[in-house]
Amino acid sequence: MRVLVGIGVVALMTALGVHLLFAPCLRIRVQGPVPNIYQLYYDTGGGYSETESQQLNVAQDSGSINLTFALPWSSIRNIRFDPGIALGQVALSRIVLESGFSRYEWTGLALHDEMTALQDLDPLQLQKGIVVAQVKGPDPQFGLGLNIVHHRAARVVPRWRAILSGVMWLVVAVLAWTLREQVYRALLRAQGVLHYNTVSYALLFATALVLSMAVVAKPNVSPDENCHLACARFYSSYWLPPAIGDPRSVDTISGYGSSKLDNLSISHFFLGKASVLFHRFTADTVLGTRLVNVALLFALWMVALLGLTARRVMLVLMLSPQIWYVFSYANDDAFGVFLGLLVSCQLVGPGSALNRYLASEHIHSKIGLGIAVGVLVGIESLVKDNYLLVPLLVGFYFAWSMWFAEDRPRRIRLFWKASVVLGVAILILVSRAACNISINGWDHAEKRQAQAERLANDGCKPSQYGTDRAVAGIAMRSRGEHYSALFLDSRNWISLSFKSFTGLYGNMNLPSPKLYYALILAVYLALGLYVTRTIWRNGHARDRMLLVGAAGLCLLIVGLSTYSSWVNDFQPQGRYLFPLLPVLATVLGRTERLLNQRVVVGGCWLAFILSSYSFVLTGLLCIPK
Questions:
Q1: CA 20 to 30 Å from 184, out of 62, 100, 553, 592?
Q2: Which run of H or of E encompasses 28?
């Protein structure tokens, strides 16, 4: 048995190593209209099809973009590259093929000779070593030459791969054989290994990965990072938000003609003020701002050390590498996830400030705790519109608690205490809205629209919505497209949202292998089916009601995300679904007595192992540095 365990560990590490060293991929450096959708087709014998293709969404203009497409292990006959759905000029400066120990590169004239305009493209031109083509139709297509398909070019063997290969095999063999006894004993002590206490180890490891990503990734290789950095820089110098059109905020204007400083979000205020502290330790302002979000994940790890209840809540952080990824660069989602999980700790822990306040005998007893929780919920409601789901979760928790209260006096006390908490949260939200009105007036919506009309890129102006001049994906409803168009193969909201929820890096152009998505989906389905079935069969009425309410909130946030993609802009980004995390954490925490911890923690560890694989071998390995 010990030998079998050792062989199994070696086999697992070998499989990961083989993928790291030998998995073929094609990298294309391209610059074109934004937003856009790029797609690579590879023919393995049955012709071109959607099943043998990869699609990457680019939502932000960051100059030339490196698109990374994973290729199958099977033999490829032809490759076709579709440079998006938007009209305009497309420029390709380099194609790199990595396969095994070899690296093939085409630039300049060699690249021009390998590219063919198949459809909806003007003849290709070579300008200063860059292949330029004008898109003139809705379905442009490049054909890649046989030299690229069959790897015939001047081959470059990166020496670091050969060195890394030898070192890795040696380390794997030594470690696997040395640890076989410990692994075997750990399997025998599954009750001790698969325990909520192990969550803190996973979070510490994830924090180390996030710190690595924050340090090595180039600026603005993640969604809207330049825009978030500009907003943070503003608040590092000022305390109040600017008026719409204020010259101080000109560098925060996006291609849509709007600024993230014009909404009610408080995330950038926190990011800007906290970054001042980190800028004292590093001259790199980008890294200093990123370290704020890294510190938030580190703080969640420290919260997990405080008790078993907190570790049960933080279990959801093991489910996806995309959660870790938002803590590695400047954005306004990390703060929302951080506060949301703190709110979930208040709902789950019997000794939390909220539950101690609710358990007190009088309305005014321990009212300071209730006010503090109300402030926390109120700040969370100001992060982003989708994080309003968290206050809804708190409201549902109060209604759920009152419904199952043991008597009428208890129900009345809960009602008034809930009014205190939610009243404080609403007061904070109203105060922020009043501040916005005092700065921008009651006609702030009209001012934002006028600014967008003046400053937005062509195709993104409000006057162009609903017309053929609008960029594809903007205001689909105004253009007469049905809601169901979101889920067709040409867009496939479900697939893109799932990928960007479970591991899609860079500017949503660095996907993990298809096998990874299939495996983590299987883990999600198995874990979700077990939790749902167990709670429904073994739980009381209050447990079932909690499950139904959580399911309703999950459907609500998914529905709102799809509605926004249909009405505003087609952006199937998994981070918009992150408000689901406090909901899932609350369900797992409140029904822990019904669930087998080895099954739940074991399932989360499977997701964590897959997530680590994706984050390291796709995120850290492929992110531009």
A1: 592
A2: strand 25-31
Sign of CA dihedral 140, 144, 145, 149: negative
pLDDT > 90 in the chain, percent: 32
Report the alpha-carbon distance of residue 353 to residue 365 in Å, rounded. 12
- pLDDT higher than 90, residue 257: no
Mean pLDDT of the 481-501 span: 83
Quote the CA–CA distance of 243 and 52 in Å, as a whole number.
49
Exposure of 59 in the CB half-sphere (CA atoms within 13 A): 20
Structure tokens at 618: 């796709």
d(CA 521, CA 518): 5
Contact indicator for 341, 585 with CB cutoff of 8 Å: yes
pLDDT tens-place string over residues 126-174: 888 888 888 888 788 888 876 666 654 444 444 444 555 556 556 656 6
Q: Give the range with max mean pLDDT: 47-56, 81-90, 316-325.
A: 316-325
DSSP 389-450: HHHHHHHHHHHHHHHT-SSHHHHHHHHHHHHHHHHHHHHHHHHHHHHHHHHH-TTHHHHHHH
Task: Return the beta strands (E) in 100-154 as ranges.
Answer: 102-107, 115-119, 125-127, 130-135, 141-144
Buried b (16+ CB within 10 A) or exposed e, 505-533: bbbbbbbbbeebbebbeebbeebeeebee
Q: What is the pLDDT of residue 191?
A: 44
Max Cα–Cα distance, the chain, nearest Å: 83
* 250 backbone φψ class: left, alpha, beta (φ>0; ψ -120 to 50): alpha
The residues, any chain, with a CB within 8 Å of residue 64's CB and separated by 6 or more, are 29, 30, 31, 91, 93
Judged by DSSP in three states, 472 sits in coil
Query: pLDDT, tens digit, for every residue of 314-366?
Result: 999 999 999 999 999 999 899 999 999 999 999 998 889 999 999 888 878 88
For the chain, what's the residue count? 625
**Euclidean distance between CA atoms 237 and 252, whole angstroms:** 14
- pTM greater than 0.90: no
Of the candidates 209, 208, 196, the residue with the CA atom closest to the CA atom of residue 316: 196
Nearest Cα neighbor of 555 from 563, 565, 567 is 563
423 Cβ neighbours under 8 A, 6+ residues apart: 374
Neighbour count for residue 4 (Cβ, 10 Å): 10
Q: Which amino acid is at 399?
A: A
Q: Strand, coil or helix: what is 200?
A: helix
CB 572 within 8 A of CB 496: yes
C-alpha–C-alpha distance, residues 204 and 118, integer Å: 50
Q: Which residues contact 102 (CB under 8 A, 6 or more apart)?
A: 151, 155, 156, 157
Helix, strand or coil, per DSSP, at residue 560:
helix
Pairing assessment for the beta strands 510-511 and 504-505 based on DSSP bridges: antiparallel
